[in-house]
Specification:
heterodimer; A: 302 residues; alpha/beta; Rossmann fold; four-stranded parallel beta sheet; 45% helix; 12% strand; globular; B: 443 residues; alpha+beta; Porin; 2 domains; 16-stranded antiparallel β-barrel; 4 helices; 15% helix; elongated
Chain lengths: 302, 443
């Protein structure tokens, strides 16, 4: 009898603690670490943020595993890229979670790609062209100017969901905007030397960065998006590089490093492996991540 | 507001410095600077206004839809075919101790098509999701169209609750909810073949809830018509029940797991066996009575850094135990042969798959069954195939796959099959292609 009531009390306490937590902060489920980091800039301690993926994971191929369902179940706000990047797992996660707050069309459903202009929107949709996205290239976070475009609407959304603390979010947004504009000027200056540089990329992951810094992509190691580089295609790229001079091979940390290394050995071009996103789980900030990206990309040109 | 302050401060600063310096040229220069600052401020204001405007647009919550084909449902077609080779005659296939039903027979030798599937799915509105799956297969030169799934599911109940209604695969087992084309082996585990005729679906309702715990914790119950094998017969109301619980989580980024248990119960059913048994006899065993099944399952996955595409290992185990209580009749026998039946049947399988390169995967599986069926007339049970006669059905399988993309797969599989007393060597060469929308696969 005693033990029963004890268990009940414990259970009630856990429930109360949980309810208290939910009131105190907004639960944010970010599909990718860059959105977790952006939310942290804009909400700080008001938000309880969970990043579903790490910077070392390929966001195209995630499984809707039990732990993600459990997290999505409790989320007040879901922040994802959209543009079909998460099409292999997010729809299932939304269906399984039993959470009305984060369904499509609800304030708790925020897709970052809806607030920026998309690059590489395909004119023809055909699977023989690889893993292409009808809405365009989804790796929008690689251009820091996009972060600014997304931060505004995201801050608005936080204010909608947590109106009692609208002032807090507005102030955080203003601070972020100021610091970020300064940072963009700084990065643009530091990366000015790479403008117009010819490069080869592994996967079309850095298209927005290329657009921002004015790089010139000569070739892609993947024959079509999402398909691993074949020896034949690599040989073609090698052939192309005999006639056109490139400065570096741009790779992404979560991809197999062998194709880029092979081409590097064949051509003598340096491989620049960029971190796909902010290392949110180790406490890195967006600014620190872009610092790393900019530093690495200007290294071969210095 | 703050920009106004800045302007005022700037102006006063300029004024102060101007009054101190008294120099005309200095003043001119400062005026120029002031103009410059004003311009800068203006452009900043404009930028800010633009950002605000973007914020206002976003209050519709979604400007671009990301569904396939916009308002059309997402459609995918599964092409599945294979070449089968057996040492024994596949018509002789049986599992002593387990009368077979459903789709438990072996696939024909040589070239044939498997289940070609057409799946339509989409959100119906903001509150419901719908899915429709047709399977088209040929049995004995006759084209059979089977409605495998036609269900709706709620999206907006909240508090972790979901209701699914219509026809769907029961959640009584881990593999049972996975479409055949997404299985890791060509054929169903023996325990699924022997107890459920490969896969169990029925018409009804499911209520499930996911608790707001750090660990994944799910409870669910299904009320089903009870007309589908291994239940059966004319049922009014709810003919069978399923209750299940799942728990799961992660160990770090690279390891994830799930474990589940289930209970299936169907009373006063009429289970007709042997739809596909080709013993030459037209006698069809019919079980009438109560049946219940307990299921246990566990799945563990390892993928370095959580990148399943690059490499992964998956371990999977399931166990089922069924008890039947009632009578057994051999329909069409003359005089009518009948017996009581006290059936105990169980079985398990364990499998491991290893994706060792981005396009290659291999796997092994082991199956084992056991039964202990008794009744008032053992001859009747024997005729129905319900006596094991001391044989323990088992099977070992190995497979290798080439997976060029998410949408295509070529598989070679070998089974050493001891389902019955004569060992069989079974080889399958199978292709599975999916055309159309990008399906999301469950854990």
């Amino acid at each position: 009898m005693l033990s029963k009531s004890f268990i009940f009390c414990g259970f009630a306490a856990v429930l109360c603690a949980h309810a208290g937590m939910a009131q105190a902060t907004l639960n944010v489920f970010a599909c990718e670490p860059e959105w977790a980091a952006l939310a942290k800039e804009l909400g700080a301690t008001r938000l309880e943020i969970y990043s579903a993926t790490t910077a070392r994971q390929d966001p195209h191929r995630i499984e809707a595993r039990p732990s993600l369902i459990a997290k999505a179940r409790k989320a007040d706000l879901l922040i994802c890229t959209g543009a079909e990047l998460e099409i292999g797992w997010l729809p299932l996660l939304l269906r399984r979670a039993g959470n009305a707050r984060i369904q499509v069309g609800k304030p708790g459903h925020f897709l970052a790609s809806e607030h920026v202009d998309m690059l590489e929107v395909p004119e023809k949709l055909d699977r023989s062209l690889g893993d292409i996205h009808a809405s365009g290239n989804p790796h929008i976070h690689t251009d820091p100017r996009n972060m600014l475009r997304i931060a505004g609407p995201l801050s608005q959304r936080l204010q909608t969901l947590d109106p009692d603390h609208a002032d807090h979010y507005q102030q955080r947004y203003r601070e972020f905007e100021r610091a970020w504009q300064q940072a963009i000027r700084d990065w643009s200056g530091r990366a000015a030397a790479v403008k117009g540089t010819n490069i080869v990329v592994h996967h079309d992951f850095w298209s927005y960065l290329i657009d921002w810094l004015g790089l010139n992509k000569l070739a892609t190691l993947e024959p079509v998006p999402g398909v691993s580089p074949s020896t034949r295609h690599l040989a073609e790229v090698k052939q192309l590089l005999k006639t056109q001079q490139a400065e570096m091979i741009l790779d992404t940390n979560y991809l197999n490093e062998r194709p880029a290394r092979w081409l590097s050995e064949q051509t003598g071009l340096p491989v620049v492996t960029l971190p796909a996103s902010v290392d949110y789980h180790s406490g890195e900030t967006l600014q620190q991540w872009f610092d790393r990206v900019v530093d690495r990309i200007r290294e071969p040109v210095k | 507001m703050n920009l106004l302050c800045v302007r005022a401060a700037l102006a006063s600063a300029v004024f102060v410095s101007a009054s101190v310096s008294h120099s005309a040229t200095d003043l001119e220069e400062l005026n120029k600077k002031l103009d410059e600052y004003e311009q800068r401020i203006e452009s900043l204001e404009q930028e800010q206004a633009e950002t605000r405007q973007r914020g206002a647009v976003s209050s519709e919550y979604s400007r671009r839809k990301t569904t396939n084909n916009l308002f059309n449902p997402a459609i995918s077609v599964i092409l599945d075919g294979f070449y089968a080779s057996y040492k024994n005659n596949p018509e002789d296939y049986r599992i002593p101790g387990f009368a077979l039903g459903g789709e438990a027979e072996l696939a024909p030798e040589g070239f044939s098509l498997g289940h070609s599937e057409i799946v339509f799915s989409n959100n119906i509105d903001d509150k419901f999701y719908g899915q429709f799956t047709l399977a088209i297969a040929e049995h004995d030169n006759e084209l059979e169209i089977e409605l495998e799934e036609a269900f709706f599911e709620t999206l907006a109940l909240g508090a972790g609750f979901t209701i699914r209604g219509g026809r769907f695969y029961s959640a009584l087992g881990y593999l049972n909810q996975i479409h055949e084309h997404a299985w890791d082996f060509k054929d169903a585990p023996l325990v699924y073949r022997a107890l459920f005729g490969n896969q169990y679906f029925d018409d009804g309702l499911r209520l499930s809830v996911i608790l707001p715990t750090p660990l994944f914790l799910e409870f669910g119950a299904e009320a089903l018509s009870g007309r589908k094998y291994p239940a059966g017969g004319e049922q009014d109301g709810v003919g069978s029940w399923v209750a299940y619980a799942n728990i799961g989580g992660d160990f770090g980024v690279s390891h994830s797991w799930q474990a589940g248990m289930s209970y299936w119960s169907a009373d006063k059913i009429e289970r007709e066996y042997g739809g596909h048994i080709h013993d030459g006899a037209a006698e069809v065993p019919l079980f009438a009575g109560d049946s219940k099944t307990i299921g246990l399952n566990a799945v563990y996955k390892w993928a370095p850094d959580g990148n399943y595409r690059a490499r992964n290992v998956k371990l999977q185990f399931e166990y089922f135990n069924r008890e039947d209580e009632g009578g057994l009749t051999l329909l069409n026998s003359d005089p009518l042969e009948a017996s009581t039946l006290d059936g105990k049947q169980d079985g398990w399988y364990a499998q491991a798959t290893w994706k060792f390169a981005s396009n290659w995967r291999t796997g092994i599986r082991y199956d084992m069954l056991d039964s202990e069926n008794t009744g008032s007339d053992l001859d009747v049970l024997d005729e129905a195939g319900l006596l094991s006669n001391g044989h323990t059905p088992k099977r070992a399988s190995v497979m290798a796959e080439w997976v060029p993309s998410e949408y295509s797969r070529i598989r070679l599989q070998y089974n050493r099959d001891d389902s019955y007393q004569v060992s069989d060597d079974q080889v399958y060469l199978q292709y599975t292609f999916s055309i159309g929308s990008h399906g999301a696969h469950a854990f």
